Amino acid sequence: MAARPRTTARKKPAQKRSHETVDAIVEATARVLKRDGYDRMSTNRVALAAGVSIGSLYQYFPSKEALVAALMERHVEQMRALFEEEAQRLAGAPLEVAVRAIIMRTIEAHEIDPELHRVLDQVPRVGRLQKLDEVQDRGRALVLQFLRGCCEPLRPRNLEIAADLTSSVIEVVSHETVLRHPEHLRDGVLVDETVDLILRYLKT
Amino acid sequence: MAARPRTTARKKPAQKRSHETVDAIVEATARVLKRDGYDRMSTNRVALAAGVSIGSLYQYFPSKEALVAALMERHVEQMRALFEEEAQRLAGAPLEVAVRAIIMRTIEAHEIDPELHRVLDQVPRVGRLQKLDEVQDRGRALVLQFLRGCCEPLRPRNLEIAADLTSSVIEVVSHETVLRHPEHLRDGVLVDETVDLILRYLKT
Amino acid sequence: MAARPRTTARKKPAQKRSHETVDAIVEATARVLKRDGYDRMSTNRVALAAGVSIGSLYQYFPSKEALVAALMERHVEQMRALFEEEAQRLAGAPLEVAVRAIIMRTIEAHEIDPELHRVLDQVPRVGRLQKLDEVQDRGRALVLQFLRGCCEPLRPRNLEIAADLTSSVIEVVSHETVLRHPEHLRDGVLVDETVDLILRYLKT
Amino acid sequence: MAARPRTTARKKPAQKRSHETVDAIVEATARVLKRDGYDRMSTNRVALAAGVSIGSLYQYFPSKEALVAALMERHVEQMRALFEEEAQRLAGAPLEVAVRAIIMRTIEAHEIDPELHRVLDQVPRVGRLQKLDEVQDRGRALVLQFLRGCCEPLRPRNLEIAADLTSSVIEVVSHETVLRHPEHLRDGVLVDETVDLILRYLKT
DNA sequence: AATGAATGAGACTTCATTCAT
DNA sequence: AATGAATGAAGTCTCATTCAT
I want to staple B106 with a disulfide (CB 3.0 to 4.6 A). Which of A16, A39, B174, C69 is the partner? Predict the structure, then answer.
């Protein structure tokens, strides 16, 4: 077994043509990953699916891991964008409004591409492939920040633990709902229940 | 890649020596899996680590997947045992006692072998390798069963959703705690908070 | 470009069958090397020529370099055997007899497989592939040892330089004769001339 | 593997800028060849090292072999120049003077770029890449020519064999000295010894 | 002329699996 | 039953070379 391969992009695309190639490769990575799973995915299959020669693929991505890392980063970036934006708006908002908003955004984040999310979740957490976990850390931090700046009185003494619990709950509910019970997305019951659960926990 | 290989054991170990061989192989699977991860794990390495020839390994396990499946089933069985046992005792117990007990058992279940748990969690969910998910389903069912038989009045109308939420929360907290914040295992604060969170949600 | 690959044999053949496989592979390496040269030689071609699967080849030889190293060592061993044997007999022999004998042995050494010798000479001197140079060092040492123990009076003051010169001359003549002027091997003229050249140089 | 590629320059550089490009490429070839060896050298790396695009490189050199051939020819030309010049001057010179001069020139020829010489020596002797061997043939011819025109009486009957021996000895000594014992270049001992060896052989 | 993106044959290598002993 | 030699599909990756811009 070789040492871990390099993961960083090999070459920046300079021309327009190559930028399209890179995009096609990343798209193909998503398709193959969803279709075959991480360990059945191969650089050859990705190249084939992208309609690109294996050589071109290696011009930009030095390894299978680099491929998935690029895809993951793109996905993570999309997810994160949803939060950062909302975080601005939420400063000083009433607790209930904020909690509900965070839940909605988290669900939306999982809805961007649920299949992709599921499979990225299964990828070995190694090197740059740990990016996915960072989204949660960031979410946790935003929740903590909100709780600390919150005007309403809160029941939990330890806000860090409260933020941990809260964001874990939101994450797991969103995850399960989108991936395993998408039927609950129509009616708002599950969201209402989760809001309820969290508010009862947080409020005095 | 050929069609999915067979996964069921090729022959039942009849003699005592065979049984020891099988055990040694499963143990070795665990070690190699933890050390190398699923896709770096190879049947040859497992055989080597088990001190057994590759031929013997294939006498008992017809594929790489079968190897991991056996290990997963053993692990799942150990986890499940903790619950089923407790489930007996808990019928008719006060809500708080029951919730606390379930949380403790879930944490203990994750503590059996956290490293193994983490890596099994990363294994492709394919064929028999979906067993891990079934533990959660079983937990969900037990919680639902308890809620339905509970003497105390409950606030949520929809007990299925309540069971879903409850068991998801317990699962995620246990998982995160054991794998990412083992320092919280000493003091009982996190457990107390979680009990609190759930009771506030369930009680009128 | 990867780091230099491992070169040492991967596995000792335990059974008779595998010993035959190893032999077949080394033989095939010689054939392919002579036919195609070092950089056109590939592990696949060697496996094919050996009538062995590429997998079997890699069971015993972890890289192309290992293949050539094994072959080179076998060849070097054969060459060296000729000298070591003779070295015994030559202690105390008259100068002329010794010089002639050494020349004869050196030529014979080059005649073992001239084509192979030529191509091994072209192989990049890297890692274990430096073995070929060691034969010359060993020859040099034997000549020096003989000169030091020689009963007859010698003209050169510095015996090290004399040994260097002598063995270089013998080597180059043998090499050139066998590879470029094999017709001179029939008549003994070239050998006589070389003996003459060396004796005139060494004797007072 | 395809048929041997073309090796002759694709176009003559017409302008001054082109000429500089060609030079830069040949220089880069030398650097990369010395650094990486023949089979690790790649045309892309040469282009990079020359600060030229791979497309431009192929405008002037139609293949990897052509690149090395050009370099080799340049080197060979430099070596040969030393001899041809001297050959003029030496006609009719005393034997000892001539022998010493030839040895000096040969050593100087090897000193032009010993590293380059070593690596060119390792290049597969194929097509135009055989040029290196021709230097020796030329040297041999010049020696023979001198011996034939020599005024002093010579001992060997067969002047061809004598020329062969003589030039082989000179070549091997120069080679070994420059590449393996450069410390002997300071003191003139080795040169003196070699002159001695050859004169004793040639003179009556 | 120059650029550098693209190509794809083919090199090296691993590993799940089979099978002769 | 056990062994381990053998297999070969398939994977990763490089690099000489071509060609659109």
Answer: B174
Nearest residue to nucleotide F18 when comparing alpha carbons to its C1'? Answer: D55
| pLDDT tens digits for range C11-22 | 655 566 778 999
- Collect all residues of chain A within an 8 Å Cβ-Cβ radius of residue B123: 122
pLDDT < 50: residue spans in chain A = 1-2
How large a percentage of chain C has pLDDT more than 70?
A: 93
Cα–Cα distance for residue pair D42/D112, rounded to 1 Å: 24
Choose which CATH entry (3.40.50.620, 1.10.10.60, 3.40.50.720, 3.20.20.70) describes domain B16-62: 1.10.10.60
Distance from CA of C151 to the nearest CA of D (A): 21
Cβ contacts of B126 on chain A, cutoff 8 Å: 37
Chain D contact for C2 (CB, 8 A cutoff): no
C-alpha R_g of chain B: 20
Q: How many helices (H) and strands (E) does chain A have?
A: 9, 0
DSSP state, residue D11: S
> Which residue is nearest nucleotide E9, judged by alpha carbon to C1' distance?
D1
- Closest nucleotide (C1' vs CA) to A1 is E14
Question: pLDDT per residue over B93-144, tens digit each?
Answer: 999 999 999 999 999 999 999 999 999 998 988 888 888 888 899 999 999 9
Give the architecture-level CATH label for domain B72-202. Orthogonal Bundle (1.10)
Q: Tell if A47 CB is < 7 Å from nucleic strand E.
A: no
Segment D100-113 mean pLDDT: 95
Q: Amino acid identity, residue A186? A: R
Give nucleotides in strand F with any atom < 7 A to a protein C-beta: 1-21
Distance from residue C44 (CA) to nucleotide E20 (C1'), in Å? 25
Pick the closest to residue D171 from D70, D72, D83, D77 (CA basis). D83
Contact between chains at C169 and D171 (C-beta distance less than 8 A): no
Chain centroid to CA D147: 22
Q: Which residues of chain B have pLDDT under 70?
A: 1-6, 9-17
From chain D, pick out residues whose CB is under 8 angstroms from the CB of C172.
Answer: 168-169, 171-172
Domain positions in chain C are 16-62, 72-202
Cα distance between residue A164 and residue A159, in whole Å: 8
Mean pLDDT score, C23-35: 95
Q: Is residue A77 packed enough to be buried (19+ CB in 10 Å), middle (13-18) or exposed (0-12)? A: exposed
